[in-house]
Amino acid sequence: MERKLLDTLDLLHDTGRHTEALTLLEGMPAEERDAEWTGLHARALNNLGRYAEAAKELLACRKAGEGDPLWHYRLGYALYYLGREGEARAEFEAVLRLTPEDEDAARFLDWCE
Q1: With b meaning 16 or more CB within 10 Å and e meaning fewer, what string describes 69-97?
Q2: Residue among 68, 69, 70, 74 at smallest CA distance from 56
């Protein structure tokens, strides 16, 4: 994904303009949609409270996300807000195995317990 597009998506995220980010992502041609796109799309869905859609999308590319702490975080976030704390816990534990200093994941892990 181009740096300019990533910067725009980060700005939209940081300013709470999640619907705009989702629209931008969904406007991209299918052939440009990769694992990075899936993660950013799931982030926008999560931020709009569309947790089931985010989880479904992330689970469809589980193999590609297994070594990515952001993938685990986004899935854990969706699962947590779906009330599936046990499954969310496993995802936040995976985040912390990959990036032990992740304070957000540690906080969610505490909330799961």
Answers
A1: bbbbbbbbbbbbbeebbebbbebbebbbe
A2: 74
pTM above 0.70, yes or no: yes
CB-CB contact of 13 with 47 (8 Å): yes
DSSP 10: H
pLDDT-derived band at 1 (thresholds 50, 70, 90) equals: confident
Over residues 15-38, the pLDDT tens digits come to 999 999 999 999 999 998 888 899
CB proximity list for 87: less than 8 A, separation 6 or greater: 79
Q: Which residue has the tokens 């041609």?
A: 29
pLDDT, tens digit, 9 for 90 and up, residues 60-76: 989 888 899 999 999 99
Does an H or E element contain 51, and which? helix 51-59
